[in-house]
């Protein structure tokens, strides 16, 4: 992402609360195509950290699925949870999910979050934005609610990314209900495209369709937990969980149907077959799929200078691979894949202002690790 400098650094110490645990200084090394990487622990004792976003001054916003938003200072100290965060349904895969900065954060200080919002028959994915102030989020307002709210504790999706067009993409899951991913009158299993204030863009693909929700960009998705904007092209790329196998890397295009649950490169968990995508040429197929699963979560396009050989590569947080999956892209296709083993379930990956890479481990005692060149 583009990093802006704050006009003043007066908030730098405000969130470094006395008494918070300091990250351990121990480090280790792991092998990669870029050589030995130093893995340094920057924070611990986080309850299933889910989303990461760097502030312009180098501090790091981090969500905990239990419903806390905190800031990791440049001194390695974690703030107390910020006030102003909404109540979340922290059950199963639900809770406080992603966090992202408005592209004009340096001027407006707007922060976006996603979360499992309770209500109705259960919960649904919701997206909100508010102003980052000292120790809190002010004026938080929900800009989109996935409808309908349904029972169950899985498949919320939840990633937030900003294309250069002035819009925002939000990803939702099918909430383990399958068929609604094909229903254009449901937000389940969709990519959503909005203006940043939550209004619907006039050029959305279904804006003039009476039988479709106008916020929908693409549909037929299972559970998109990773999304990123390609440098140069501004194109949206996503990654989603398959069932038993069949995780997918997609490049969602407006109005297209990506097939779930009509087709999949995986199978149902009970062993029942699902037709392969080539049996339905009318549906959009994945750029790449994985069998067995890599269980992907957050993703970025790497644009830093610390690892120049990875310029514009995709880095994926691997829950199943216990590390990072790196993909080299050429002409819209994956031409090389590397797996960097870290030994823990990795929920999110983010690029720091200095080009190092931060990851969050998916644990009750979650950690934040910094990967840098040895």
Give a structural overview.
The structure is a single chain. The protein has 374 residues and is mainly β. It has a single domain (27-373), classed as Neuraminidase (6 Propeller), CATH 2.120.10.30. Helix content is 1%, strand content 40%. It has one helix and 24 strands. The chain has one helix at 105-108; strands spanning 27-30, 37-46, 49-54, 60-64, 68-72, 96-101, 110-119, 122-133, 136-145, 160-161, 167-171, 190-195, 216-219, 224-229, 236-240, 247-250, 288-290, 296-301, 314-318, 323-330, 333-341, 346-351, 357-361, 366-373. The protein has a five-stranded antiparallel β-sheet with strand order 1-2-24-23-22, with no helix packed on it. A four-stranded antiparallel β-sheet has the order 6-7-8-9, with no helix packed on it. Strand 14 and strand 15 (236-240) form a beta hairpin.
Strand order of the largest sheet: 1-2-24-23-22
CATH fold group: Neuraminidase
Secondary-structure-derived class? mainly beta
Runs in which pLDDT lies below 50 for 5 or more consecutive residues are 1-24
Overall body shape:
globular
Count of the domains: 1
How is the topology of this model organized?
Elements: E1 27-30, E2 37-46, E3 49-54, E4 60-64, E5 68-72, E6 96-101, H1 105-108, E7 110-119, E8 122-133, E9 136-145, E10 160-161, E11 167-171, E12 190-195, E13 216-219, E14 224-229, E15 236-240, E16 247-250, E17 288-290, E18 296-301, E19 314-318, E20 323-330, E21 333-341, E22 346-351, E23 357-361, E24 366-373
Antiparallel strand pairs: 1-2, 2-24, 3-4, 4-5, 6-7, 7-8, 8-9, 10-11, 11-12, 12-13, 14-15, 15-16, 16-17, 18-19, 19-20, 20-21, 22-23, 23-24
